[in-house]
Write a structure and sequence with these properties.
The chain is about 45% helix and about 15% strand. The chain has helices at about 10-15, 35-45, 80-90, 95-115, 120-140, 145-150, 165-185, 190-195, 205-220, 225-240, 240-250, 255-265, 295-300, 335-350; strands at about 20-25, 25-30, 50, 120, 200, 205, 270-275, 280, 285, 290-295, 350-365, 370-385. Strand 5 and strand 6 (about 205) form a beta hairpin. The structure holds 6-O-methyl-beta-D-galactopyranose. The site of 6-O-methyl-beta-D-galactopyranose has 10 residues, from helix 9.
Length: about 375
């Protein structure tokens, strides 16, 4: 077994019954495991709502550390639509040439610094730095702001040994409050100012709504991007032939990115709150209980994906749900894809091979299910071409 192999702990439960019952902070969760059912539930926003008290649809629940509603992620249709219409064009900016060029410069410069050094601890010295710097492009704020975000570590709500860290979350909330005040005093062309000037359904956004969008932008794309980047590097370290293949066949790089997202599934699952007594896989789901849409399990569903536990770089049929599904599909997906695409281009250009020196896995646990999502520590050496 390779270090970069990512396990699928849900296989048996998915085949046997299609769901699993787990407990999260004394509030049980029914995990939906098959691709077809995950899609069906994601689609049915009336019965499976995202709009409960802020933080409850996240598993682990964030109700104790967050009162701000994340927008548009914790809002149901039809209200969701107006927010999404406002945000979609902004979050598609990663397709613009200037954005791509700046991202390319950032990642290329970062790689130049770590090339030939030994060891390089990928999580702290590469992925976290990359994610934070790239976020300045998404928010359109000064590059230097990333220094502060880097100092916050890999997750804005979690710290070493603490799944939910209220003090740490407060640092982010205070920071965002101050940034909103700054943008009110001196408007610019950053996301804060754009949102403060915007209207949804004929009404100006409140400060709390702006905060909700920004909190989501900081938290939703942090450990997910860091894991995707780190897992990609570990994979190439152990599969030099794959890096070589992408160098030789640039036309399959787009498919390879989708395959990495499917295989790594950086976000294991996302919850919904049941609004009326119903059934999930012939299993009773009571009103006000929670289900979770398990993207990671759905992405290994053998009834949809051939050889689901293998990375097939040029996989043809790949209807993965790594970026979610339906109304709430990931707003940051364009940015995330552009990051992976740029990373692959830069690695193909500059790196001959990667030595994996040592690693410590980051494993999530939901009762009996243990799933590797990435690394706590990943020491490598990048060997230049
Ligand atoms: C929430 C979530 C969004 C949550 C797409 O996922 O990501 C999690 O990492 C955060 O903790 O608050 O933003």
């Amino acid at each position: 077994m390779n270090n970069s192999d990512m396990n699928d702990p849900f296989e048996q439960a998915r085949i046997d019954q299609g769901y699993a019952q787990v407990s999260d902070q004394d509030d049980p969760v029914t995990m939906v495991l098959r691709l077809k059912d995950v899609r069906k539930c994601a689609h049915n926003t009336k019965t499976f709502s995202s709009q409960d008290i802020p933080g409850r649809i996240v598993v682990p629940s964030e109700v104790n550390i967050r009162t701000t509603r994340q927008i548009p992620f914790e809002v149901d249709p039809p209200m969701h639509k107006g927010y999404r219409a406002l945000l979609d064009p902004w979050f598609k900016r990663p397709l613009q040439d200037e954005y791509k060029e700046q991202l390319n410069n950032q990642i290329s410069d970062l790689l130049d610094v770590v090339l030939n050094r030994e060891p390089v601890e990928v999580i702290e010295q590469f992925s976290l730095v990359l994610q934070s710097r790239a976020l300045t492009l998404l928010l359109n704020t000064p590059f230097e702001d990333s220094e502060r975000w880097i100092s916050w570590g890999t997750h804005v709500f979690r710290s070493e040994g603490e799944a939910l860290d209220g003090d740490k979350a407060q640092v982010l909330y205070d920071y965002i409050d101050a940034e909103i005040e700054r943008a009110i005093a001196t408007p610019s062309d950053d996301l804060y100012s754009v949102l403060l000037a915007a209207e949804v359904d004929g009404k100006k956004l409140t400060k709390e709504e702006v905060k909700g969008v920004i909190v989501l932008t900081f938290s939703g794309g942090r450990d997910t991007v860091i894991n995707a980047v780190s897992n990609t590097i570990a994979y190439f370290a152990e599969h030099p032939e794959s890096l070589q293949r992408l160098r030789d066949e640039p036309e399959i790089r787009g498919r390879a990115i989708e395959e990495f997202i499917r295989y790594f599934s950086p976000l294991t699952h996302m919850g919904r709150v049941v609004t009326e007594d119903t059934q999930v896989c012939e299993h009773a789901a009571k009103a006000d209980s929670r289900i979770s849409l398990c993207w990671a399990s759905a992405n290994r569903d053998a009834s949809v994906f051939e050889t689901p536990n293998e990375v097939v770089l040029d996989r043809k049929m790949n209807p993965h749900v790594g970026f979610g599904f339906g109304h709430h599909n990931c707003l940051g997906a364009t940015h995330a894809r552009q990051i992976l695409s740029t990373l692959i281009n830069v690695l193909c250009d500059k790196v001959q091979s990667i030595d994996l020196l040592d690693a410590e896995d980051n494993i999530e646990q939901w009762d009996e299910f243990k799933r590797k999502v990435g690394y706590h520590r990943l020491n490598v050496r990048f060997n230049p071409k």
